[in-house]
Amino acid sequence: LRRFFDPLQDVAMFYNSYQSATAALEKLSGVLEERPTVAEPADPVPLPAPRGELRFDGVRFGYTDRTVLPGLDLEIPAGQTVALVGATGAGKSTLARLAARFYDPLEGEVRLDGVPLASLRDSDLRRALVMVTQESFLFTGTIAENIAFGRPGATPSEIEAAARAIGAHEFIAALPEGYDTDVHKRGGRLSAGQRQLVSFARAFLADPAVLILDEATSSLDVPSERLVQHALRTLLADRTALIIAHRLSTVEIADRVLVMEDGEIVEDGSPADLVGGTGRFAGLHRAWADSLV
Ligand code: ATP
User: Fold this and answer.
1) N or C: fewer beta carbons within 10 Å in the chain?
2) Which residue has a Cα nearest atom 23 of ligand 1?
3) Is residue 215 scored above 60 in pLDDT?
């Protein structure tokens, strides 16, 4: 049924119809990117306390007859921040979608804490892993409702604590209607940077073991960029993160960079190691640095 949700339906209506946190998180991930239905396991493995270790073993995948990922092996230890970079069409989003079980591999296995994703109840996976994609998506409703979406039933003080942690409280409190500001109404219009902060506060409140982030490409002014980068550091702390990175500043805060080309990982190392090398990342880094001058 998830696929029939109207992405723009009122948040209040959503809460009336779908009370559980699970459903909200499902909707969150389902709306931010259309998620095809994958089968629920007949014999699910429980995951009461996810640590966030992700692992790809011989993963082959294609949307059609054409293979996009020929055979991916990757281990991401719990807590690591991984930046994915590579040319358009290299397979970054595909890797991210497989990690979030938008699709099942044609061959091989994706595992969370050693458990194949296909053996996890969808609700358990949604609690353990949140995907935030592209331009921050805000629902109709107030800023408070949008943040609370990360954890339905959150109290106003929990919502404010998340906003404070992310560095969004200041601008929210300065709005005439504060947390009750309607994000889409005239006068309540938020800047691109502010929208990102609200979506980060929502993810922070959801507090998943694994965060998958398709970084927004919209350019921000320098002060907003600083705020967003600061918020990102807070959001990444104490969880595993896989970021499709579009900003040099984001790559630089990663523990590890993966460069993808034609569905394969062609470079894998710390930003410092790769930038000092002679490979693709070093070239990309130079181009990036030049564009910032
Ligand atoms: P970008 O930076 O442009 O988002 P990417 O590295 O994320 O690129 P993917 O989106 O993973 O690359 O695409 C990898 C390949 O899979 C491309 O050839 C793309 O055309 C194809 N592809 C992606 N999504 C689909 C889809 N839903 N159906 C069919 N083919 C797809």
Assistant:
1) C
2) 94
3) yes
